[in-house]
Amino acid sequence: MESYSGRDNVLQYRAQMAFQKIMKHACEELGFDRVNWLIQQGGDGELAILPPGTSERAVVTRLTPVVDRLLREYNRGLAPEARVRLRIGIHEGLVHLDGANGYPGDAVVTVCRLIDSPQLKAALRRFAGAAVALILSDRIHQDIVRHYQDLRPEHFQRVAVHLPEKNFEAVAWIYVPGENAADAAMNDGVEAPRSRDNPEADSDGAVGRTSPGPPPQSSGGQSFHHITSHGVNAFGNGNVISTSGLTDNTAARRSNS
Fold this sequence. Notes:
By secondary structure, this protein is of the alpha+beta class. The chain is 31% helix and 20% strand. It has one domain (9-256). It is globular. The protein starts with 8 loop residues before the first helix and ends with a strand.
């Protein structure tokens, strides 16, 4: 949730209640089995590991617009400090489901870094009428958005997320429902990175899905962004899915402020 720590106790309590209510209603509307999501609560948001069989394509392309609509309805008439606005991040990769204090895995670290990216925070500030801003890992964007185009690819802003204090750098894609994030970034004077379809390399020799600096962290295997799969695909790399509840190639989703 945006600006969560700046709220007083009462507003934090109300924001948490609203968050859970909105997520419950969104998942019911979309037919997502939220009961079986593995959720690690964070006060101002949550980290969710989605179960095998979840449609990655549906999660990536349908969840954010529905949550945005429900939140805008909720926020109508509220004072600015009481409104709830979310950042959602989606990535995929191997995750240990039996961790002693959470869910260990590079995929979890990656989606948490993406959700904290300054570019995503700036996008939510830029579009005051929006209630949600989405960030997808490059792999999710390529596997879902580029191929299926349920969401218009040209409305995604390509960014190079760089968090030097976390030793993290990766290419990602930002989307704001009902807005053209790419066009707004250009109007703000933000230089758009070269497209993956550009046959020429970037200035550092990087082509396609690599970032303009050190290569982005990868969890290995096939991947799609944070809840990835849209369609009939199952979470994970689509090869072997464990049903033992121990370790699984699952998608990690993080919504936060």
